[in-house]
Each structure stands twice: as structure tokens, then as C-alpha cells.
Design a protein that fits this description.
4-stranded antiparallel sheet; about 20% strand
């Protein structure tokens, strides 16, 4: 991967920060490890570069991971020279590459969901064509559609979430929302999920303030979410993770909105470590707690959060400053437990905001997600 410095104006599209810059045959990812002090893009030339960028958290956020993976392989096959093989060989090539990409971050279901859908499209193309070129072209076009659809999905999430919150809370004063980790345009193809709801509330003039946690240990809240909120000129306050309970006790939070890396069929949700603590605090203080995520984050094959694989990160992210990139800050020889995610039980979640509407509990703290997904199949974005 080669780095390229980009001016700040190159980061914007409709005043939105871009983590993914793509044209056919070319992909650049914003190196989010260097934000907010440096703006550097990395050239992604193939799936190997894509795997490394995802694993090393150059790009992060479940939707963005899926799109980056798909596009890294699209760039590779577009620039592939002298491929010796027929359509079946092309299918085998693409399947192996997709499986390799999925191994980069196993918790984010969006990545495996995208790979599954792309495999289906590749098989369909191979069924009617004998040339590898046709199969590769079908893959490239499908990956590009995913990029476009992610932005539309995010905007629908923002719209549904903003409307639902206003109707639920029915407050005459403006709303203040607490969020965790980063769920904005840097974590998606554009606009954002939980941060997309905050953006929509701000656009409609009903947001008093956004509170963002610093989000230990990788500081994605202080480095990325705060960066986005300042860029969007949204009134914002950064707090330590450990200050959230005190903030809620002082009646300064109207609602909590977080993203998701995987949602089980019963509504249990895996998200950045610390999310579960926020849900417990919100429940104690009678504050609604929402998950904002596209339907691709829902994994109906898992009956509950107990089946979600929780990725563990490098000990260096806790032992050293700047998420493991800086000086040592902890005692040498101490053991480290550094899970990237935790699972919030469904009973602590008020609603799950998707691009097709808000999934609410049907009673007795139960979400009927399967029937919601079935009922929205085929519907266009709002």
C-alpha cells in the first residue's frame, strides 16, 4: 500500500467526509489511524492490500469494511492481466479471494454478507457465460452497486431514526444524543448510521447537542467521531467513557444511539467494547437506547448474541498510547484482555433503526426481527 496526501477539500462530497475514494480500477482509503492530525490516503491495489487495510484498521466500521473489501477485489480483477482460465476458473478465483477478505475481521457480519451476495452474482454470471471476462465484469458492477446502495441505506436510517426519536420523546426542547465509537461517514460509504441519525436531527433543527465518548482503547470516538462532528459544525461535546453514567444522571442525555457490527435474530447486538456499559446505564436512568444499523448487519442464522464471535485485538492497543502506535503507558509484563466488541442483550435495546424502518419490541422484551426482515423484502429505501 502506498500513501498519498490529500487536501481537505478532497475529503468532501456534499460536505461529507469520505473514507472511500473509488473510480473503476482505482481505490484509495483514508488512513483513519492518522486522524485527526494527518489526512493520508492509501492506494489499495488488490485484495491483499484490502485485507491488510481492514485488519490494521486503516478502514473500520462494519459497512465500510464490507465496501472496502468488495472494491479492493474489484480493482484487482479490473487490472488483472493475462488471466488464463474460463468462467469456472474466474468463479474459483473470486471465491477464494472473498473468503480471504472475510477472514480480516470476523465479527462484522456485513463483510460476510457482502461476500455471500457477491458469490451469488458471480455464479449467476458464470451460468450464462464461458469467458472469465464476463464474470469479472459482473463482479465489478455488483461491487460498485454496493457502494451506491450503502449511501442510500444510511440516509434512510438517518431519516427513520430522526422521525422515530421525535415522535417517541415528544419534547418541546431540543434533543441531546450520546453516541459511542464512530458510526459516521468514515465508518460507511457515506453519511453514517448512528451518526447519520444525529446528522438528520441536526439538519431538522431539533438537535441540542451530540455527546461522543472517546471510546477506549483505540479512541475512535475522540479521533474520528469528534472530527466528523466538528467538520459538520454539529454542537458536540467529547466525554471520557467513564463519564457517561454521570452525564445521564445529570439529565443531559435524551437518548443513546450506537451502531452495530452484528445483530442476532433475537436482537442481541455486538458493537464496540463499552456499548454494553452504556446500555446498562441508560436502562438505569430510563433513557431510550437505540441501535442504528443496515439490515446487512442482522444475522438471522444466530439465535442469540452468545453465538457471536468476539474478536480480540492486540495487547499493544492498551499497553501503548495512540492505539498501540505510541509510547508505552502500562507496566511491562502485565496481562492484557482486549476484546474489540461486547454484546448488548436485546432487553436493554429500545429499538433497532434500519433503512426499512425501526424494529421495536413486540412485548416481553422480544424483537421479531425475522418477520420484520421478511416483511420489508423488496421494499425500496424511504
Amino acid at each position: 500500500m502506498q500513501s498519498v496526501s490529500i487536501s481537505s477539500s478532497a475529503l468532501e462530497a456534499d460536505n461529507t467526509l469520505l473514507s472511500i475514494c473509488y473510480t473503476r480500477g482505482s481505490l484509495q482509503l483514508l488512513d483513519q489511524r492518522k486522524l485527526p492530525l494527518e489526512t493520508v490516503y492509501l492506494d489499495i491495489c488488490d485484495s491483499s492490500d484490502g485485507w491488510s487495510a481492514i485488519r490494521e484498521m486503516v478502514v473500520r466500521g462494519a459497512p465500510a469494511i464490507a465496501i472496502a473489501a468488495a472494491l479492493s477485489l474489484a480493482v484487482e480483477v479490473f487490472n488483472l492481466k493475462d488471466f488464463n482460465g474460463n468462467s469456472d476458473d474466474a468463479v474459483s478465483f473470486l471465491f477464494k479471494k472473498l473468503e480471504y477478505l472475510v477472514s480480516s475481521r470476523p465479527t462484522a457480519v456485513n463483510l460476510s454478507d457482502a461476500a455471500t451476495k457477491l458469490k451469488e452474482i458471480v455464479l449467476q454470471a458464470a451460468a450464462t457465460a464461458s469467458e472469465s471476462k464476463t464474470v469479472f465484469q459482473a463482479y465489478i458492477e455488483a461491487a460498485e452497486i454496493m457502494l451506491k446502495d450503502d449511501v442510500a441505506s444510511n440516509k434512510a436510517i438517518g431519516s427513520y431514526g430522526a422521525s422515530f426519536l421525535q415522535n417517541l420523546l415528544k419534547k418541546s426542547e431540543k434533543l441531546s444524543v450520546l453516541t459511542h465509537c464512530n458510526t459516521g461517514s468514515l465508518a460507511t460509504a457515506g453519511y453514517g448510521t448512528a451518526l447519520g441519525v444525529i446528522r438528520a436531527l441536526h439538519t431538522e433543527g431539533v438537535l441540542e447537542r451530540a455527546y461522543c465518548t472517546e471510546t477506549r482503547p483505540f479512541n475512535q470516538g475522540s479521533r474520528l467521531t469528534a472530527f466528523e462532528l466538528v467538520h459538520e459544525k454539529i454542537p458536540a461535546t467529547l466525554i471520557a467513557d467513564s463519564a457517561a453514567a454521570a452525564l445521564m444522571k445529570d439529565d443531559r442525555v435524551s437518548a443513546v444511539i450506537v451502531g452495530a457490527d452484528r445483530v442476532a435474530a433475537n436482537g442481541d447486538t455486538a458493537n464496540k467494547i463499552g456499548t454494553y456499559s452504556l446500555a446498562l446505564c441508560a436502562s438505569h436512568h430510563n433513557i431510550p437506547f437505540f441501535v442504528a444499523a443496515p439490515l446487512t448487519s442482522i444475522d438471522l442464522s444466530l439465535s442469540s448474541g452468545k453465538e457471536i464471535i468476539i474478536e480480540e485485538r492486540s495487547a499493544k492497543e492498551l499497553l501503548n498510547s495512540r492505539g498501540g502506535l505510541g509510547e508505552q503507558v502500562a507496566a511491562s509484563g502485565v496481562d492484557v484482555w482486549n476484546p474489540a466488541f461486547d454484546v448488548t442483550p436485546a432487553q436493554l435495546i429500545t429499538g433497532i433503526i434500519t433503512e426499512k424502518g425501526v424494529i421495536t419490541q413486540t412485548g416481553s422484551n422480544v424483537f421479531d426481527i425475522k418477520n420484520f426482515v421478511k416483511g420489508t423484502a423488496g421494499l425500496s429505501f424511504a
